[in-house]
Amino acid sequence: MKRLEEKHTLAIRWFHWLNFPILATMIWSGLLIYWANDVYHIHLGSMNIHLFPGWFYHPKPAALTKKGHALWHLDYRLAEGMAWHFFFFWLFAVNGVLYVSYLILSGQWREVAPKKNSFKDALQVVLHDLHLRKAKPAQSKYNGAQRIAYTAIVIMGFGSLVTGVAIYKPTQFAWLTRLVGGYETARFLHFWLTMGYVAFFLVHIMQVVRSGWNNFRSMITGYALVEEETKQA
Amino acid sequence: MNEQTEQKNQIPAKKTETAEQQIRRMSRRSILQGVGAVFLAGALDHWVNTRRTRQGIPWPLRRGLQINEEFWHDLASNRHLAPTFPPSQITHARTNGDVGLGEDQDIQDWQLKVSGLDTSNGGPSERVFHLDDIKKLPAYTIITQFKCIEGWSYIMQWKGARLADFMHAYPPPLRTDDNGNPLPPMDGMPAYPNFVSMMTPNKSYYVGLDVESALHPQTLLCYEMNGKPLTQEHGFPLRLIIPVKYGVKNIKRIGFIAYTNRRPADYWAEQGYDWYAEL
Q1: Are B237 and B261 members of one domain?
Q2: Which residues in chain B touch residue A221, judged by CB atoms under 8 angstroms apart?
Q3: DSSP assignment of B114-173
Q4: Are A78 and B150 inside 8 Å of each other by CB?
Q5: Which residues of A lie closer than 8 Å to B, measured between beta carbons?
Q6: Each residue of B123-149: pLDDT tens digit?
Q7: What is the mean pLDDT of residues B215-224?
Q8: Hey, what's the torsion of the CAs at A41, A84, A76, A161, to 10 degrees?
Q9: A65 pLDDT tier (thresholds 50, 70, 90)
Q10: Which end of chain A offers a freer environment for a tag, N or C, measured as fewer CB atoms within 10 Å?
Q11: What pLDDT does A73 receive?
Q12: Average per-residue pLDDT for chain B
């Protein structure tokens, strides 16, 4: 006999699924802006990777080149990027503030905030996921690695807001720009936080796929199917 | 989780439905909603991108920019000074943008034409100035971070006269109320016309400024950069330095200044950028 157990409240699911298109729009419009002054590189030994190479903004696969079509183009769209970015910034900020307020007021922050043993747990989760450790790590709603990841992403979101305002209004909020290390540093941090979201997204998708349908379904319906007898103490 | 909350967290199943059937129904509904949302987002994006263009971008985006710029402009004031830096942090000057510069400017041929001046005291509505007239005004030197709308910035030293001093010395008429009486000063500033327009001598580059930013104490009619007279490519002999705005508003080689109550044309705002371009 199986029964349904509520895993994610309606509010949490709304915050989560609204954030997805909002953050995607922020990253996309951010790229349109970044293109105008794409100064960052990754140095790996003697390798120097330019972020981003020309084909990234304007991919022209050989098959399409003859027709002169690009798959998409992210170049020469600075004005458009700014218009989208500064509009969706509000949605991103409001959704984030409501989410954090909700976690605090509902007490659900206790399931998300890392605990004393979360860091040790997280290590075990990583070892388990890499098939280096057999035993399944302890898990309540979230395991240690999830607690750290989901808390870190909120802090990163806050960091993006702060560094974003520091770049957007460096005169009116000169104190904020100074606080995050100056205009150039703010831009650097803003960029790498975004790269952090992309990394988070990739790992997140991998883990969701690994966890299976029942888990994913709980994020859309709110409920997970559980065995009647497996009651968690 | 204790027994009580567990009870609460169970949703009452329809009698005829097993838990499996129930969640399948809920999933179906959620996925349909999700597909609907994706189509809605796609339709919304299509709608935005196919709207009438208003100054270089679809009007919904232009409206968004306008609401944003008005909101942030409320927070702007002459009390917010752009940060200044010590001389040791001065960086080399990057040259960017030559719209409106054309041929090298000969100082003999250059003049600054100002229109829309106050005529109530019998003066002319238009006047012509030469560089010496600007240099007669008190000179200020500031070291600020010049920020391009593209994202780069350089710390540079600028010397020039305050645009505010120039405006007080050769004032435009005060705005009037419905009865034609001049308005009193606001925030310690005379009620000059709402906007200032500037153009290069060949009129191919032009900026519009709100009068509050024009009167900002760091806004300079600048003739020296990093201790030397402006070079040709940086706008010899006179350019605007307005650290509360992006580089696009810091017009090089000013040939014309006009005072107006209608928002003046702006080269880059016509290409889809925010009209204020404020920092």
Answers
A1: yes
A2: 23, 26-27, 29-30
A3: EES---TTS--SEEEE-HHHHHTSPEEEEEEEEE-TTS-EEEEEEEEEEHHHHHHHSPPP
A4: yes
A5: 1-6, 17, 21, 33-34, 36-37, 39, 78-80, 82-84, 86-87, 169-172, 174, 177-178, 183-184, 187, 217, 220-223, 225, 231-232
A6: 899 999 999 999 999 999 999 999 999
A7: 97
A8: -20
A9: low
A10: C
A11: 87
A12: 91
Q: Please tell me the predicted confidence (pLDDT) of residue A2.
A: 84
B108 phi/psi in degrees, rounded to 5: -65, -30
Which residue in A217, A221, A227, A231 has the most chain B C-beta atoms within 10 A of its own C-beta, making it the best mutation to test that interface? A221
Contact yes or no for B31 and A220 at CB 8 A:
yes
The beta-carbon neighbor of A6 closest among B9, B20, B151 is: B9
Crossing angle for the helix pair A118-129 and A144-168, nearest 10 degrees?
100
Shortest distance between the Cα of B124 and any Cα of chain A, in A, equals 37
CATH of the domain at B179: 3.90.420.10
The arithmetic mean of pLDDT across residues B100-110, rounded, is: 88
pLDDT of A66 reads 62
Q: Indicate the residue of A34, A79, A172 with minimum beta-carbon distance to B72.
A: A172
Please compute the mean of the pLDDT values over residues B260-275 and round it to a whole number.
94
Per the structure, the complete domain to which residue B30 belongs is given by 20-50
Helices A78-106 and A144-168 pack at an angle, to 10 degrees, of 130
Residues B149-166 have a mean pLDDT of 96
Q: How far is CA A62 from the centre of its chain?
A: 33
Chain B interface disruption, residue of A171, A191, A194, A217, most B CBs within 10 A: A171
Phi, psi of A76 (to 5 degrees): 55, 40
Mean pLDDT for A13-18 is: 95
| Tally of domains in chain B | 2
State how far residue A132 is from chain B, nearest Cα, in angstroms.
30
**pLDDT above 90: residue B98:** no
> What is the mean pLDDT of the segment spanning B16-42?
90
Q: Please give the share of chain B, as a percent, with pLDDT higher than 90.
A: 75
User: How many whole angstroms separate alpha carbon A176 and alpha carbon A181?
Assistant: 9
Q: How far does A83 lie from chain B, in Å, by closest CA?
A: 6
For residue A63, pLDDT over 70 is answered with: no
- CA separation for the pair B242, B163 (Å, rounded): 9
**Considering the domain boundaries, does residue B277 fall inside one?**
no
Tell me the domain boundaries of chain A.
Answer: 1-85, 108-220
Same domain flag for B107 and B217: yes
The two tokens of residue B154 are: 């350089």
* Residue B210 lies inside a defined structural domain of this protein: yes
Q: Look at residues B64, B61, B73, B63 and name the one whose alpha carbon lies nearest to residue B194.
A: B73
**What local confidence, expressed as pLDDT, does residue B7 receive?**
47
> Do B35 and B169 reside in the same domain of the chain?
no
